[in-house]
């Protein structure tokens, strides 16, 4: 007899509390405290490890050789127009992370109050990570400048701190940005990686009416760059899932002055790191060409984001029969391939086998103003039980997994490849 039904009303209350108190990454203080209090209530003997300001980790150590981790994200996204947004910070749980955290607590409750822990052929860790959403960057830049964190993403930060050193494989979950008529999960959906590029076009200010001849127009350079990039799309292979979205992020323009400076930023989303560096090089060349054509200059900056996420097929092959045996989840998607959304699970999946089981149960636009949970029974009772059964199967059938473990320095080397300005 499992305890998921018994815990369901408490899970609903916890999910609602987190949903209505959204916090941005590295600021999830109240959420982290709530999780800590609930873990202490469930089992005061569990030792809680703190990391990266708000991160938490507990381990059920059974003296096994391998440790399987469930990873949940604590943070909200920036969406000030959401009906339950925090009016001060603009944070809103428009990405569904509040249910990940609650599902993790439901799994811990089952391990503490149920009798199945000994059936797991691994140790089990639960890791609550801060800052998955790549938002609120000025604050994170401050944190980084002070040396409080090294990464904008909570999972890379935890990797640097050694939180995953004793972990061998990872399960996480995520809401799908679609509404389904049937209770649906998804396996094997890969995610893109991304980097940010910044181009600061520099010209020379002059009176726009009296003496435009002496000016060098930074806005015109950015327009030329945008035209080049638009035409360049024809040369980008559509199999590579490349996306870029150049936008003006900083300018100080007035109508009667030739603008002397304008900063433009774009993401570059990709599946293949080598191809991404080729595209970034072309963008750099387009920016340099646009500046040169009009007699100005451009400064180029690169901010490395998250790596692409390749789901571990061996682990998902173990999960599929668990779905087949489950009569409460009605539909499964297994053939979507890859999508251009990204997450720092990509960085973790670079280090060790990892899967992200996606699921429905929500309505509205993900990251949008109307995103919310509509099927709590599925997400907070049926899904946790399914995840529990899946983790049990994964632990017991670990011989079917081709394990790999990359070091933190291999990870930083993969990032460094992206940082080279062309
Ligand atoms: Zn998100
Ligand atoms: Zn998310």
Please describe what this structure looks like.
36% of the residues lie in helices and 21% in strands. The chain folds into 2 domains: 4-191 and 308-413, Zn peptidases (Aminopeptidase, 3-Layer(aba) Sandwich), CATH 3.40.630.10; 193-306, 2-Layer Sandwich (Alpha-Beta Plaits). The mean pLDDT is 96. Helix 2 packs parallel to helix 3. It is of the alpha/beta class and 422 residues long. Strand 18 (362-363) and strand 19 form a beta hairpin. It contains 11 helices and 19 strands. The termini are far apart. Strands 1-2-6-3-7-17-8-15 form an 8-stranded mixed beta sheet, sandwiched between helices. It is elongated, with a radius of gyration of 23 Å. The structure holds zinc ion (ZN) (2 copies).
Residue stretches low in confidence (pLDDT < 50, at least 5 long) are none
Bound molecules: zinc ion
Question: How far apart are the termini?
Answer: 60 Å
Strand order of the largest sheet: 1-2-6-3-7-17-8-15
Helix percentage: 25-40%
What percentage of amino acids are in beta strands?
A: 15-25%
What's the helix-strand series? Answer: HHEEEEEHEHHEEEEHEEEHEHEEHEEEHH
CATH architecture field of the largest domain: 3-Layer(aba) Sandwich
Output the CATH class name of the largest domain: Alpha Beta
| Class from secondary-structure proportions | alpha/beta
Q: Quick one: overall form?
A: elongated
Identify the CATH homologous superfamily of the largest domain. Answer: Zn peptidases
């Amino acid at each position: 007899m499992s305890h998921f039904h018994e815990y369901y009303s408490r899970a609903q209350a916890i999910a609602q509390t987190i949903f209505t108190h959204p916090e941005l990454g590295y600021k999830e203080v109240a959420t982290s405290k709530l999780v800590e209090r609930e873990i202490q209530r469930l089992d005061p003997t569990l030792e809680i490890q703190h990391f990266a300001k708000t991160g938490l980790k507990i381990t059920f150590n059974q003296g096994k050789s391998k440790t399987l981790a469930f990873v949940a994200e604590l943070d909200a996204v920036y969406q000030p127009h959401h009906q339950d947004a925090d009016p001060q910070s603009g944070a809103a749980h428009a990405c569904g992370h509040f249910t990940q955290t609650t599902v993790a607590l439901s799994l811990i409750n089952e391990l503490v109050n149920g009798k199945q822990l000994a059936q797991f052929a691994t140790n089990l860790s639960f890791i609550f990570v801060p800052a998955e959403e790549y938002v609120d960057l000025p604050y994170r830049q401050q944190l980084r400048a002070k040396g409080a964190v090294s990464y904008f993403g909570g999972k890379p930060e935890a990797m640097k701190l050694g939180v995953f050193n004793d972990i061998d494989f990872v399960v996480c979950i995520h809401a799908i940005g679609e509404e389904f008529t049937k209770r649906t999960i998804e396996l094997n959906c890969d995610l893109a990686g991304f980097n940010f590029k910044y181009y600061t076009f520099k010209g020379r200010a002059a009176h726009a009416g009296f003496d435009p001849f002496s000016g060098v127009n930074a806005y015109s350079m950015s327009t030329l760059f945008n035209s080049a990039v638009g035409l360049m799309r024809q040369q980008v292979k559509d199999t590579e899932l490349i996306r870029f979205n150049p936008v003006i992020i900083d300018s100080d323009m007035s109508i009667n002055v030739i603008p002397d400076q304008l900063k433009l930023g774009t993401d570059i989303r990709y599946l293949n790191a080598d191809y991404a560096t080729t595209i970034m090089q072309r963008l750099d060349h387009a920016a340099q060409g646009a500046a040169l054509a009009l007699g100005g200059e451009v400064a180029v900056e690169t901010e490395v984001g998250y790596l692409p996420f390749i789901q571990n097929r061996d682990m998902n092959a173990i999960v599929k029969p668990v779905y087949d045996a489950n009569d409460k989840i009605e539909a499964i998607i297994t053939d979507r391939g890859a999508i251009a959304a990204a997450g720092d699970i990509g960085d973790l999946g670079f280090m060790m086998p990892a899967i992200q089981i996606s699921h429905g149960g929500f309505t509205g636009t993900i990251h949008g103003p109307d995103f919310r949970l509509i099927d709590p029974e599925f997400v907070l009772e049926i899904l946790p039980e399914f995840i529990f059964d899946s983790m049990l199967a994964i632990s017991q059938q670990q011989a079917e997994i081709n394990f790999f473990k990359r070091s933190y320095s291999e990870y930083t080397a993969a990032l460094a490849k992206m940082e080279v300005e062309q």
